[in-house]
Amino acid sequence: MRDVDLVLEAGKVAWIGATGKPPAADSLLDAAGRCVIPGFVDSHTHLVFAGDRVEEFTARMAGEPYAAGGIFATVAATRSASDKALLQMATKLVREAEANGTTTLETKSGYGLSVTDESRCLEVAGSVAEEVTYLGAHVVAPEYRGKEDDYVALVTGPMLDACAPQAKWCDVFCEEGAFGPEATREILQAARARGLGLRVHANQLSFGEGVRLAVEMGAASADHCTHLDEADLEALAGSATVATLLPGAEFSTRSPYPDARRLLEAGATLALATDCNPGTSSTTSMPFVIALAVREMHMTPDEALYAATAGGARALRRDDLGALGPGNRGDLVVLDAPAPAHLAYRPGVDIVATVVRAGRIISPSPSARS
Ligand code: NIG
Ligand code: FE
User: pLDDT digit string (tens) for 18-56?
Assistant: First the structure.
């Protein structure tokens, strides 16, 4: 832990160092001995949806297994919700995330599954988050049941035409019950040809080819990484594909957690993200995810903090985020605690005191401050 002064100018970190006497500035935020960390980079969320699936969660807690099919309930609710209702819901979740210290969000479509609905979900996504992902390949749309090839043709054809201009990334849920390796490859190739960056929901519910495909295709991130064999670890190690772990999903589906230590020992780069979605991880809290990573996945508090900030930035291929170096965006969190380990040590307690993005306080909101 160091005592430092940090100068933000025009939304960026202009200077950081140990002086003891603060350099001149227009306004001063005195952290008063509390700990300052980079803002959290939540590189994997699904914030555009309607309704909830609390009954599915309750049934699961009573012993029902999770299956990808639950997604259809949210697709039906999302399709029948207005744009305004979707925006309101997503905005509420973004405010929650910000109050918990998140300063950068990625979010996806994936609960529309028609050209019109995916496109309007991306419109909402783009107005609430800075990193936007097209996930038309979340599951095969219900009206295409038994006609997966036709749905893949839609996702790589007219839906991609409509959605590519609205997104920076394309994601595929590569899993039994969603998309197999051939379809995943075809969709990723089509998206890459349109200039989209790639991400993959990989090896969440079972072993499979998702992670290796993600690495082979140069995806920025392979997300979940819950079931990995040696070949997956070898592929990830030293690659440019970040392994993004989403322990909120294992928590809420009562599943075994990914083996973070094995990944770290193999030399993979890790990110931690919330996966906030109505089915498997109904949380926007990065502190909660850090607590899970430390308690359940045996990451050290420092490893977890790095994965939740710099790791997330790498998963989004952003070199201006996730650390408080000069030139980076001025995104930081003041914790009401002397050290970041308190994020895991005090689970469920709100120790996020002040959140700054691009040099401006975003939480508490101005009305809550006055
Ligand atoms: O990341 N795995 C796919 N998508 C989500 C779950 C979606 C849902 O159940 O609604 C996830 O866990
Ligand atoms: Fe997800």
Answer: 877 777 888 888 888 899 999 999 999 999 999 999 999
E strand residue ranges, 158-220: 169-174, 197-202
The count of domains in the chain is 2
DSSP string, 303-352: HHHHIIIIIHHHHTT-SSSSS--TTSB--EEEESSSSTTHHHHSTTS--E
What is the value of pTM for the model shown? 0.97
- Ligand 1 pocket test, pick from 42, 44, 46, 272 with the greatest ligand atom count within 8 Å of Cβ, gives 46
CA distances from 51 to 97, 106, 252, 265 (A): 18, 20, 17, 40
Q: Which domain holds residue 88?
A: 40-315
Exposed/middle/buried for 129, CB within 10 Å: 0-12, 13-18, 19+? buried
| 2 CA distance to ligand 2 middle (Å) | 36
pLDDT in tens, 267-277: 999 999 999 99
Measured between alpha carbons, how far is 324 from 182 in angstroms, rounded to an integer?
A: 41
Q: Tell me, what CATH number does 204's domain have? A: 3.20.20.140
Are residue 84 and residue 23 in the same domain, yes or no? no
- Does any ligand 1 atom lie closer than 6 A to the CB of residue 210? no
Place of tokens 């070949």: 231
